[in-house]
Amino acid sequence: MTTLVEAPQSAEPPSTRTRSRQRSAAWKRRAPLLPALLFTIAVTQVPFLVTVFYSFQSWNMVRPGSQHFVGFDNYVDVFTDSVFLQALGNTVTLTVVCVFVAMLLGLGLALLLDRTFPGRGIVRTLLITPFLILPAAGALLWKTTMFDPTYGLLNWAFGVEVEWLSNYPLAAVMTQIVWQWTPFMMLLILAGLQAQSREVLEAAQVDGAGRWRTFVSITLPQLSRYLQLAVLLGAIYIVNSFDAIYLMTQGGPGTASTNLPYYIYQRAFEGFDVGQSSAMGVVVVAMTLIVATFALRLMFRAFDVSRGVK
Amino acid sequence: MAQVAYAGASRIYPGAHSVRAVDGLDLCAGDGEFLVLVGPSGSGKSTALRMAAGLEDVDEGTIAIGDRDVTQLPPKDRDIAMVFQSYALYPHMSVRENMAFSLKLRGMSKADVRVKVEEAADLLDLTQYLDRKPKALSGGQRQRVAMGRAIVREPSVFLMDEPLSNLDAKLRVETRANIAALQRRLATTTIYVTHDQVEAMTMGDRVAVLRDGVLQQCASPQELYGTPRNVFVAGFIGSPAMNLLTLPVDGGGVKLGELKVQLPVRAEQGEVTVGIRPESLSPVGAGEDGFDLQVQLVEELGADAYVHGTLAGHADKVVVRTDGRTPPKLGEAIRVAPCDTGEVHVFDPESGLRIGAE
Amino acid sequence: MTARTNRLGRGALTGLTWLVALLFVFPVIWMVVTSFKHEVDAATDPPTFAFTPTLEQFTTILDRGFLPYLANSAFVTGLSTLLVLLLGVPAAYALSLAPVKQTSNALGFFLSTKMLPIVAAIIPLYVISQNLGMLDNVWALIVLYAGMNLPLAVWMMRSFFLEVPTEMIEAARVDGAKLPTVLYRVVLPVVAPGIAATALICVIFAWTEFFYAVNLTAAQAGTVPVFLVGFITSEGLFWAQLSAAALLASLPVMIIGWVAQNHLVRGLSMGAVK
């Protein structure tokens, strides 16, 4: 760069001039990305690779020296383990139902909020509060003050005597999770509603569309990327739900409300079976990856990643 | 003060189909000259300007400012100032800070910066807004801040990229005159990009017309209008556009309807493209020499009216300027003739180039 | 529709909105109410609405050693968020304003790590922490929380960086600014609100994180959620005490979230809203 200034008429062909400049520029551009990339690899990928290694071992943490290679034995055990299959089913049910219900409720609340009325700011503040409550605190509060069979508010309000956590453990856990995540969905959808162009809505009105028609044909399509984002982020967090189950039902009664994170936790930290819980972890990752590839594609389309990439 | 010289300068966007956004540009803006680059969108006019600024690479050829080759220099070492289409004001800085930014970067003392900024603000009528943020200014005021940011630096070249396109029509005309006057006063070499040919004609000492990255013609506004070098320039300069008709040559002339028009130049047998500006045509009485036009649309502008019509037996539209007080009615047939044969332009229909002595 | 019925309809809708909001937030309201009760009024059938308020529960919580947990939470949340910003801001820049060629691959990688279930890594993390003597250590949590929040933060900040007009950066270059000056004096002030929004989201997720905290820490480095776990083992119904603890544990994030609602919305929608 220093000598080039002095030699403007250099006979160097332009193509090589451009290429060498591009090569050094490419590394200069990558430099700011590398620390984050290396850090993420170290904190997430390396432990996962170790998990894969453990999954081929038989190793019980309380019996030192028990560690040895067993090939695919752990995987065979995982797929013949009926509790694992039940936990898998519970995880799917919990994720799908919670995301869907929270989104519907969030949409409803967002629509209620998307107009001007007295106290709108206060109502919004109230509605986001469950998202700001510590999930652990929320779970404990629901377990006691809401669901308790003797003193809980639910039985008092409905005048019934139901043992919610024993009879409907999964539903009870899901109620708490939905309550926690609805504000998140609501905020995202509200952002989408408010980003709508007023002119387009007015155009629909002028074209003779009624409220319902406008909502279905104009608002929903415009909201779709916000809904996708809400589903994706919600699913990422809800699929990993652990606090609610750990604190409300301990996966019980029996294994009725056990999901995969909780089951793997149990195998690892209560059963001390490193090999098997690792194998489960690997299976979960493999399944998540399949779902995630699909979801990522959705995300990339919704957020137009090519934007800003020349 | 300096001239800006492009010598065979090209910008090639790489890719499967590499695009020559600017192709072998040879152009020179003289010292103190106001040079306008004009062309339709995608013609490469902005790219050419950004090459001079150092914001686009020059893949072939060179660019010199004054007697320095700046082809490889970063923008900050080129002694230029640029006004952007969006103004690109720094939203977190006040007007004063916006204008002072480049001076501070050059390490000028605080007192000097203050003097310079206040001088520029005075010149642009911005003194009372110096401590406002861009957000609190109107469109016209923002535009002036962008100008101010350029002039405080006293650069050797101004580069302006469609600086008026975000203003409303009235303000645009006003600002147009202000910028032109300011440039004359500062006598700083200026390259100005616009897609608006009226802006180009009214502001530029010379106007360069670009199309698909290739320079078509660079000349004074009068010359561009009077002797366009090819069909593209002929059609692009002037509003409404010149009427262009491709007709067979018949004994040194062409037939417009029943009117035989003698060509001002010697043409071979075959066809030529004839260009006549709407203002070179006028209605004549029913008995006089001329051709009949079926009126399809009348645009009344007050002083003038433009009549759009079709020539009998011809698909092409012809536009004629008439007196605005007595415009013809829709559906009428009017008789039209060129005012003066000297204002008939002749082009080669194959190459599009002007035929005739220069 | 006449103006009068229209107004009535609007009033009814407002009433409904208020009602729904109050019902929805009722568990929180009840938590606040219960935290001021004596233990005898907390768990009753039917529930007690009239009672003599007391601060007894809060003093009990503080006596039970709540403050060290609170300090741990603040320390871990603050430092992990700082670490996320230190690593994330340059990365977001490299994926937006000066995009590397492999931008979509890098973005995909960041997001895919977010989709890895945390359980898949907890066992090695436990073993590694144990071997390094980092069990029950705040620094282990700081690193893990940074790793947890970094992918989302990079995504969010990238979208804020993309909003910076290219012409403004070019203007600064023409004005004579070198790259560090452009970044520090022009880009950073413009994206600052976006970075704040991102930091806010990181703070919320770090403060509320449960899984790592419960498995990797105990009395020494335990964060606020770990303190709450103490309440599931005590089978007795100390509801008032529990409510007071829950309130104290949630209060910092609640206040931040309330005050910065608009930032929260911007952050969550990844800058898609202006």
Could you characterize what this model shows?
The complex is a heterotrimer of chains A (about 300), B (about 350) and C (about 270). Chain A is mainly alpha-helical. Chain A has helices at about 15-30, 35-55, 75-80, 80-115, 120-130, 135-145, 155-160, 165, 170-195, 200-205, 210-240, 245-250, 260-270, 275-305; strands at about 55-60, 70. The two termini of chain A are about 25 Å apart. Chain B is of the alpha+beta class. Chain B has 2 domains: about 5-230, 3-Layer(aba) Sandwich (Rossmann fold), CATH 3.40.50; about 240-345, Beta Barrel (OB fold (Dihydrolipoamide Acetyltransferase, E2P)), CATH 2.40.50. Chain B is built from 8 helices and 20 strands. Chain B starts with a strand and ends in an 11-residue tail after the last strand. The model of chain B has no long low-confidence stretch (mean pLDDT about 90). Chain C is mostly helical and about 270 residues long. Helices cover about 75% and strands about 0% of the residues of chain C. Chain C contains 14 helices and no strands. The two termini of chain C are about 35 Å apart. The model of chain C has no long low-confidence stretch (mean pLDDT about 85). Chains in contact: A-B, A-C, B-C. Chain B: Pfam families: ABC_tran (PF00005), OB_MalK (PF17912). Chain B: GO terms for molecular function: ATP binding.
SSE topology:
The complex is a heterotrimer of chains A (310), B (358) and C (274).
Chain A: H1 14-30, H2 34-54, E1 57-58, E2 68-69, H3 73-80, H4 82-113, H5 120-132, H6 135-146, H7 153-158, H8 164-167, H9 169-194, H10 198-206, H11 211-239, H12 243-248, H13 260-270, H14 274-303
Antiparallel strand pairs in A: 1-2
Chain B: E1 4-13, E2 19-29, E3 34-38, H1 45-53, E4 60-65, E5 68-69, E6 80-83, H2 95-105, H3 110-123, H4 139-151, E7 157-161, H5 169-186, E8 189-194, H6 197-203, E9 206-211, E10 214-219, H7 221-226, H8 231-236, E11 243-248, E12 253-256, E13 259-262, E14 271-276, E15 281-283, E16 291-300, E17 304-311, E18 317-323, E19 333-338, E20 344-347
Parallel strand pairs in B: 3-8, 3-9, 6-7, 7-8
Antiparallel strand pairs in B: 1-2, 1-4, 4-5, 9-10, 11-14, 12-13, 14-20, 15-19, 16-17, 16-19, 17-18
Helix pairs in contact in B: 2-3, 2-4
Chain C: H1 3-24, H2 26-35, H3 39-42, H4 56-63, H5 66-94, H6 103-115, H7 119-132, H8 138-162, H9 166-174, H10 179-208, H11 211-216, H12 224-233, H13 239-259, H14 261-268
Helix pairs in contact in C: 2-13, 4-13, 5-8, 5-10, 6-8, 8-10, 9-10, 10-13, 10-14, 12-13
